[in-house]
Amino acid sequence: IKHPLQHKWALWFFKNDRTKKWEDNLRLVTKFDTVEDFWALYNHIQLSSKLQTGCDYNLFKDGIQPMWEDPANRKGGRWMLQLNRQQRTSELDKIWLETLLCLIGEGFGEDSDYVNGGVVQIRNKGDKAAIWTSDYKSKNSIINIGDIYKKRLTLPKKLTIGFQAHEDTISKTGSTVKNRFVV
Ligand code: M7G
User: Fold this and answer.
1) Predicted ipTM > 0.90
2) How far is the centre of ligand 1, averaged over its atoms, from the C-alpha of 23 (Å)?
3) Per residue in 126-153, pLDDT tens?
4) What is the pLDDT of residues 6-26, one digit of tens each?
């Protein structure tokens, strides 16, 4: 028998088509709940670095849609890693795989309950990877998740990552959203 995961996960793919509404560009690829099915899927799909600009992968717990509007995300936010252009070749695929393994392996311990999913976004201005959580008001849990994520990605200590509340991202006017937390 296959090795069960703690949760069932859904992989979503976003492909930017400017003629359509944002939600209509988001497609459910598949769901899985075993280690073996995860690797079968991972080995079958394109690496993030090979996707076209404007595409995203989203891996979310079954039942949570990868959008701000989902009840689980509404009061939440994301720990976001903004990469530079060079890092697509050197680091993006490793970062996304480690993000996936943090998620399916329940790498955040007690605070895994606050974790909703993860996102990788391919953009000309620099790719992004993120862990999405619920409830940004649970400060200790959110910061613990950020600490663990940063360690798992083996980011240099002096490099910081920030947490943005989705409500701030939604209502942003300029191009930068303030960080609620930084680790
Ligand atoms: P993005 O793709 O997260 O980042 O957001 P980008 O600016 O680097 O491309 C781009 C746009 O997609 C946003 O300004 C929204 O119009 C739309 N969008 C992104 N997300 C994550 C959502 C979402 O969760 N819900 C809705 N309704 N629109 C979203």
Assistant:
1) yes
2) 9
3) 999 999 999 999 999 999 999 999 999 9
4) 999 999 999 999 999 999 999
DSSP 102-154: HHHTTTTGGGGGGEEEEEEE--TT--EEEEEES-TT-HHHHHHHHHHHHHHTT
Instruction: Tell me how far CA of residue 139 lies from CA of 36, 136, 142, 168, in angstroms.
Output: 35, 6, 5, 16
Whether ligand 1 lies within 6 angstroms of the CB of 123 is answered as yes
Q: What is the pLDDT of residue 49?
A: 97
Dist. CA 68 → ligand 1 center (Å): 9
How do residues 99-123 score in pLDDT, each as one tens digit? 999 999 999 999 999 999 999 999 9
Beta strands 56-61 and 4-14 are: antiparallel
Edge-first strand listing for the sheet containing 77-82 = 26-34, 4-14, 56-61, 115-121, 128-133, 77-82, 162-165, 181-182
Tell me if 29 sits within 8 A of 40, measured CB to CB.
Answer: no
Measure the CA–CA gap between 121 and 127, rounded to whole angstroms. Answer: 6
Q: Which residue has the tokens 């240099």?
A: 156
